[in-house]
Predict the 3D structure of the following.
Amino acid sequence: MLASVRAELLKLRKRPAVWVLGGVWLAMLLTFGYLLPYFSSPDSTVGPGASPLAELLPGNLVANTVGGYALFGGALVMILGALVAGSEYGWGSLKTVLTQRPGRLAVFGGTLAALGTILLAVVLVSFAVSAGASATLAAAEGLPIQWPPVADLVQGIAAGWLVLGMWCLFGLLLGTLTRGTALAIGLGLVWALVVENLIRASANALEWLDAVQRVLPGVNAGSVVAALGARGEGDGDGTPGVAAIVSGTQGALTVTALLVVFAAAAAVLVQRRDVL
Amino acid sequence: MTTSIIETQPGQGRQAAVPVVVARGLTKRYRSGVLAVDAVDLQVNRGEVYGFLGPNGAGKTTTMRMLLGLIRPTSGSVTVLGQPPGAPAGLSRIGALVESPGFYPYLSGRDNLRVLARYAGVPDSRVEEVLGVAGLSDRAGDTFARYSLGMKQRLGVASTLLNDPDLLVLDEPTNGLDPAGMADMRRLIARLGAEGRAVLLSSHQLGEVEQVCDRVGVISGGRVIAESTVAELRGQAELVVVATPLADAARAAAALLGESAVQRRGDALRCQIDPARVGELNRALVRAGVDVTELRRDERSLEEVFLAMTTQEVPDVG
């Protein structure tokens, strides 16, 4: 399978869409995670606002970085997953790849491993960019720089990787299911941005719907990052998609289970379906 | 188009018949109910170039996809290089180009082959070799999206050679090539067969099949309706005799060749005759007092044979 991983990494590394999505994510992280809150903070030297400056400082690095993973980062990597799977059908490259040596499951395993590597890199770069931004703001305000404990950092990185991995595999499954990119991306975004919000909005009124929402990808991803201290929707200007609806542990377990289900379902489709 | 380095002549180094592809009763019926391939029996031997002929939708590509494990047969059995279709041990010895070449448009030709080389577990140095064979070295750095149809086809053929395969499955490999490219491709296919590889070639170019294939299978409506050498398919050539008076010529020819070997059609006779005896026939006609105005061999082209066979069949899908 190592050969498949190397091949897949070469494809991803040279694919413009990967760099565009990564760049968009980092720009969003900097803009909405640091710049806008800083300029609107009542505590900062640059202007009044609602966000406490302390939330932007290095001590709050983990919460401030993972906050966007539940919805915005998740949507972007969902698009990545759909592109990776769906375009293989659109370009006809899947049949070319599947007539090489590895076999279907090895090719699919290579795709998973390569995406996992790329997502880990995205998480690490996100933390590095956040660390740089928070340290810069602290220096600009003349405040001491206090980093979070290493254990918290590792937990944040692992949680971010898990949440992004789950959303990415959701996109990968949709791309495989629809054998294309456009429909997969459309369905994925509608699910993440619309359907889950509607279910959550109605869950208070219907008990059975409350049970349903507790297994949804977005709800559990939001609960995981909320458990790490990210400001949620109930905190005024908190991050959309972040809410402690279930505990962090339950959220992490459910996200892991969903990740496995998405991967297994996509693997079954790749293994069993005719490639036309 | 760049110059090919293909120089080896066909017909060298043929080996004894060793089955490489064996399909028995191969059938594919889609969920829609369409019967794309119907009980196809097929055998391709090592060192043989096997032509797969058929009209559009006859089932050629579906059959090839089943041999490669891309499509599961509804019934029947297949082994390719002794392995079930799609098995890694078999795929590692197969080079395949099915329908249009499928590559990554944002990658260069070279990087596309590097990706496939990694999947196939062959070193990157092999990429430059096959680019040279395909005549693409000069344009290897261009993105695939910028390639012409012919260049895409060349890249597809180059990809089939990466793993130095024992079996090549080539579906319409000359699509989009200019005449020089088609000639290059024919020489390449002939060379591959001469090197002892098996080649399964589907084509609409009957001349191409005629030139490079050892055996031909004609498929129509999902069924193999004929399988033979090209010469056998075309049948024995006839001699057309135009002479006056025709009745005297017919009697003289029948006396020499036998009644069953001579037929009168319109203003001419058509004779089944060994080419070595044409001079003897001519002398017999002259001795019989006949004025011979035309003696010529009339050989059916493969195209005539193909059309005669397939126009009787109703194409299904493929």
